[in-house]
Queue: 2 jobs
Job 1
Amino acid sequence: MIANTIKQKYMAPTLRQKIKLSHFFYLLLTCGFLSLFLFPYLYLMLSSFKPPREVISSTPAFLPSQFTLDNYLAMFNQLSIGKYFGNSLVTAAFATLLSVLLGALAAYGLTRFSSKLGNLFLIFTLGVRLIPLISVAIPLYRIIGEVGLMDTKLALTLIYTSINIPFVIWMMLGFFDSLPKELDESARVDGCGMLGAFIRIILPISLPGLATTAIFSFMLSWNDFLFGLLFTSTSAKTVPVGISEFLTAYNMDLGPMTAAATLFSLPVMLFSFFMQNYIVRGMTMGAVKE
Amino acid sequence: MTKKDRRLSIVFFLPAAVFMILFFVYPMFLLFKNSFLEDDQPYGFVGFEHYSNALTSQTFYRSLLNTFEFVIGAVTVELLLGMVLALLLSTGFKGSNYIRTLLLSPLMISPLVAGLIWKFMLNDQFGILNSFLYKLGLISSPQSILWLSDSKYALLSCMIADIWLTTPFMMLVLLAGIQGIPESLYEAARIDGTNKVQSFWHITLPSLKPVILVAVAIRMIDAARSFDIIWVMTQGGPNNASSLVSTDIYKAIARYNQEGYSSAMAIIFMIILLGLCSFFMKHFWSSAKKAA
């Protein structure tokens, strides 16, 4: 009798205990992966607060021996980082505004009227995703030069807008498709034109979708490196291009580089941390039907 | 649809279409045209010279091969690692939500910063990875693996950075797919006495096939187009050991001003990409449809 209870209590785990035990194992395993994934970014961030000579120590440590802002000061001295941030912000913001506006308009038109021209346009926007951006950049290199827009924020904004538009169209198509058609019909009965129905009824309802799309458009431009590298030199230079200059073949300023990279990506990290629901919805939309 | 409606529909997508024409259609037309012209003024017609130059160039072959290797290697690891993580998180253990949130935080980091971080960690003189391996006794000196300047490891190093950056995306998509599989399927299987491994092979994997295909296709296209990570980590070096087609094209246009030659490389690259994509979609997509 006693032996039995002991057996029950200690030897054979019940099903519930088994599940708990396996869950504990999963937790440990996932935490292992998590630390591998978080380590590189944490290391960059912590290194930016190290004294400069520790960043380039041949026996690198994970934690700084003391927190200093020396790398940040050096970075501010070497780089007009404020100006680059301004350039990145202005081009990304305007490109987002323009592409979301035009893309949403197009997506709405495509869901509400079907025409051969519209379908052709839709297939074309999908095809754009397959084009390596560098191949668009080659002819644009000469075009931008010939129209005198080299090294201007305007050129970057226009390029980013056109890269974002196909993306916005595909994201907004799903949102508009899910809205009942009766909604805009009733708006038209109430005396709104098509455009009026779109602006007064459809756009306000699709705000969550527009927000998700806007986040992605913004990130697409904010994170761009290739076009900034090709089309800017001094006055319109963006942050990624500025940071990359710390690491050339002749010059490896790792300390200021870690500071600049942290400053550039930390807002993004925090932002995506807090806006994760929107981001998750946007990322899974293409691949998983809801 | 009335005539007025049709006219209106054009008004809706005309502004977007104008942008697309100016920044995609027209440049694509120029790209095609320039691939048959001289690199410099007076831009005379040279026929297929650039194409034959590219196709007989060792460097271009090397880059094509590297691109292929990069795409297959990175996407395979991303898929496997993403699947393991998605399966682990889908068990719903306590705290899995928090871990998911943390795992997704590198999601929006720019490829440039990812490249910088790994360039920093894999540095020959003060990289922390080698210092770790040395402390663990796996390598004989902190300088015995030159991750970025040894042609054996350069491409691998770039792959590691790409894997680090995009595995969270893969995990996210797969997790959403797994959570969309109806629970009743698993319950029915449990009654039939299947174990976890069996239900993975016979329920999870087949139901997930369309999701996997789309995710892999998206990632393959993006990996084939990647430029930032490689450019910032190795610039394609040493000796083209890690050069991709994109870095080759960039060098041709930005350093040597070879507009015609780089256009021809871009056209060849796009034809290969399109061909592979349509093969992939036709082959796997139709079999996925049949299975569904």
Job 2
Amino acid sequence: MKNRIYIYIIAVITALLPCSCIEGDKFENTNENNFDALWTLIDQRYCFLGYAEEQFGLDWNKMYHKYRSKITEETDERQLFSICGELLGELRDGHVNLTSVYGTTYNWDWKLQYPANFSDSLQRNYLGTRFMLNNGIRYTILGDSIAYAYVGTFEKGFASGNLTAMLFDVSSCKALILDIRNNGGGMLTAAETLASHFTNEKIKAGYIQHKTGKAHDAFSSPKEIYLSPGEGAIWMRPVILLTNRGVFSAANHFVMLMRELPHVVVMGDKTGGGSGMPLSNTLPNGWNVRFSACPILDAEGNHTEFGIEPDIKVSITSEDWNKGRDTIIEEAIKLAKALTNNKEEQKLLQ
Amino acid sequence: MILSAVSTVSKAQFANGDSINPCHIKVSASTYGITKLVSLDTYLSSYEHFGGGYFYNHENFRDARTGEFMWKYQTLFSGMAGFTELYDSQQYILMLNRSWSGFHKFHTDGKIDFYGGAQIQLAGGAIYAPANSNNPVAAKLQTSLAATGMAIYHIDGKAFRIQLDLPLIGAAFSPGFGQSYYEIFGLGNYSNIIHLTHPGNAPSWRLIVTYDCELGKKRNTTLRISFINEALQSDINDIRTSINSGSLSVGFVKTLYKIKGNSPLKPYNPFR
């Protein structure tokens, strides 16, 4: 008798196990459901909906009706991909993409709606053909004891040993022009490693938050981001940091860190922004969605999602362009000379 | 699929019968097999992915005695590597699980033995979603205190066992709802990432069914066929996770033989 009772208990518990299964979202793989899943994903997880509403009046509910009505029974998968891409484009965020076999959707407005303010043909006139290359950084000495270094990407990490070697190579120079124009980003840690070679003390350089729930305003309390001195050489002479609209994501983060340093002047055009650290998720049909999830704020607690203004705004003029001169580099050289020659300006920097 | 099985049969270990302490006699079994997998981690994807993989399980089981109290001590180690997908979305899964259990036989009628006890579980692993650019991995780390029960049916050199482990309380790692691993490990924001778990927010279980039968004329080889259904689940910080596997595996049982007095050599059955 006892045996039966125990066996029944085991059987009942075992039979009940599947009832406690934790399940995923339930959206069937139809065009309508995939659109709804995408809209819901952004509604619950995208971190800049409130900020976008404040900045340019984005009404996410309106967007649902605007684009959902474009989906009909005749809509094929390729058309659905385009409609979803248009929906995501409304966010005006380069970190928001949809990827499938049909490609990847992008909104390039943050970069392509503005002057390029960078030309590698013009840059060649300064960098020459016998520049040095270390850890992906191209650099040379321009004359007048001014060094020029170009960092085109943060997609690969930097080694402190390499950065130290580079800084030793240009240690005879009085100022460094650090050009990150058209740097579309990469790894935040790469940006932080490079920036760490320009400070000799730990400073608070910004904050990061993350969403704690599905509501538009559900955010964690800001967590400080500190910039600490790197290992090896630290450059404490004047730095002129050149930016344009192509400076995005981790490169925008680099500018946010560097502009907190007293010996750094940011020159050129406003950066492209992209301050939201992205995460990814999927739709019921397996398409991959990337979206900004964790807003990074500057040291004053302001968003830099739509870019960082330079300290000195300079654009490449047509006149200089025709003469093969890069106006921004020319102005940087002038400023570097002024900073290294003028003691009062040096004091101001300090 | 070919089920791989590796023999771990040892030859009978002869020793001075009087020197063998019954408390140190043990049985170990290694089984290898295949698993059917359902993976879910809404940090990576809001939808279940389906697939399969390979499975390994190793069990040690021995008698133990604390004073006059006789009990059984079991350790389990299992490893699983698998692949799941949902259309073009793919996930790779690696999970390791270690547990330590103590059982007490609370009822027997000679054919069926019933055991109850407690278990400490430690599970860790990761789900890797290559399409996710900034959050390609969801790490798993969970420890728990579980209630465990076992019923063993013996008939003519065969043993049929069913064991159920139900975690009751523990702790698990989970990032915040939209938190990046960069914030946790890069910036050192470790607050609110370890959570108390209980059946309400982490209804996990492990169901083990094994069938042992002796082979050969001398009946000195024991084959084990096992089915293990394991669900490691949680719903923490609005992140739902579930790795649900059903594994079928085959292997052999390695037995230490009990020699006592003048009795002939005979297989030692640890489940007795």
